[in-house]
Amino acid sequence: MHEGRGLINPRARATAYNLEEHRAALTGHCYRMLGSAAEANDAVQESWCCARASASRSWPRSSTSLPGSAGLLHQDATLSMPPFSLWLRGHEPISQWLLGRGSGCRGSRLVPTSACGSPAFGQYRPPAEPGGPHKAWALIVLELSGDRIAALNSFLDTEALFPRFGLPSELAP
Description:
Low-confidence stretches: 1-9, 55-68
Mean pLDDT: 75
Strand content: 25-35%
Number of strands: 7
Shape: globular
Radius of gyration: 16 Å
Order of helices and strands: HHHEEHEEEEHE
Largest sheet: 7 strands, mixed
């Protein structure tokens, strides 16, 4: 498994390893429950994304390395943030942006959902003052290619989008 040049934290690496080690068994179990190979694969993929999001929730605000999900980026992954013109392609430019201008998202919390059949997350940025609630920031919709993230699309209109996905506007500390 490609490990993003050592950027995966140990907890995220263990999560990915455990899921990959048991992917075939999980897919078989889901197939027996759902009766469809496509639905079984989707269920395992969604579980995998949720496990990775959970592992990356521990990304400390002071960290100078990326959370575990960085190692999941496809070599030609893209990152976009409509309506801004921000559009990046490739592991290195995305990683550099997340560590630089995008570093305000450190300490964010993610709530799993789905959008148009793709894994998605409500992203909540940390409070400016300790003890405050995490505020809605973006709906992140992932496009997947196998077990890699091919695209991260962050939609910032949380006032319109979060209610449609049953996501709250803030999360308690």
